[in-house]
Amino acid sequence: MSNTEVCYLKDAEIAFASVSPNIRRKMIRLARAIGSPIDPTPHLRFAYTGGSLLLGEAGLLVMGTSLPHRLMAGHCEHVASRHGFDVIVLRSNAEVSSYDFYFHERRVWLTDYRWWEEHPGLAFAPCSGMQGPLVQAMPTGLRLLKAPGPVSGDHIALDNLAFAQAA
Q1: From what superkingdom does this record's organism come (predicted)?
Q2: Which terminus of the chain, N or C, has less C-beta within 10 A?
Q3: Closest CA to 9 of 83, 102, 100, 76
């Protein structure tokens, strides 16, 4: 790995590690809702995971940011492939939260997802008007599900964290 790559990874890790308290709270609520044991300090064992939460039994790293996907995707891909984790990036601003999913074995991103209220489990659907599979988050990991037809925007939560209020 070149010095440039190391500097980039350290800069990206700092960006993830310095998320706002609001984003960190949302990350914790999401991790609790998934239901797998949470390691709040994976950076002590895994390089470049500062600021993230590890759900080891699920093989899942939860990261949070307010930055655009294009600025953080490379860092997430590197960490995922280096350590063998899938990644959920909770992307949040003052108005809405969205979720990006990286499946490390497939090397595939699914971006701009929202929590889907109509699914009985913890599932996410593409943003209204977009096509794609549902993503179900479970204590054992992420699973792709076929969407039962077009997902209506009426059933996609804008706040996205109502699922975690009871957790």
Answers
A1: Bacteria
A2: N
A3: 76
**Three-state SS sequence of the chain:** CCHHHHHHHHHHHHHHHCCCHHHHHHHHHHHHHHCCCCECCHHHCCCCCCCCEEEHHHCEEEEEECCCHHHHHHHHHHHHHHHCCEEEEEEECCCCEEEEEEECCCCEEEEEEEEECCCCCCEEEECCCCCCCEEEEECCEEEEECCCCCCCHHHECCCCCHHHCCC
CA 3 to CA 52: how far, in whole Å?
23
**Tens-place pLDDT, residues 25-83:** 999 999 999 999 999 999 999 988 989 999 999 999 999 998 888 888 998 999 999 99
